[in-house]
Amino acid sequence: MLLYTLIDIVGYLISIVVTLVIVQFIMSLLLQFNVINAQSDFVAAIWRSVNALLDPILTPVRRIMPNTGAIDFSPMVLIIGLTILQKILYGFAMTSVQ
Length: 98
Known about the structure:
Blueprint lengths: L1 H31 L8 H24 L9 H24 L1
Pfam families: CCB3_YggT
InterPro entries: CCB3/YggT
Protein name: YggT family protein
C-alpha cells in the first residue's frame, strides 16, 4: 500500500510538471504575439518562475535532442516521456497490489 501511495505522489508531481510545461508554452505564444506584455512585473515574475522551475528539467532533454532550428521540441518530448513514466509506474503499482 505504501508503494501505491508513493507512486501516486510521483504521479501528482508529474502532472504538475506537465501543467507547467503547458503554461510555459501558452505564455510563450502570448508573449510572441504581444497579447501579454513582458514589461509587466506580474507577467515577468510568472515567466521567470516557470522558466526557473522547468529549465533544470528541460536542459538535459535539449542536450540529447538534435538541433531543429527555431522550433524547440524538448517540452513535447518531456511531456511524452513523463506520461510514459506515469503509465509505467501506475501499471507497476497495479501489478504489485494484486
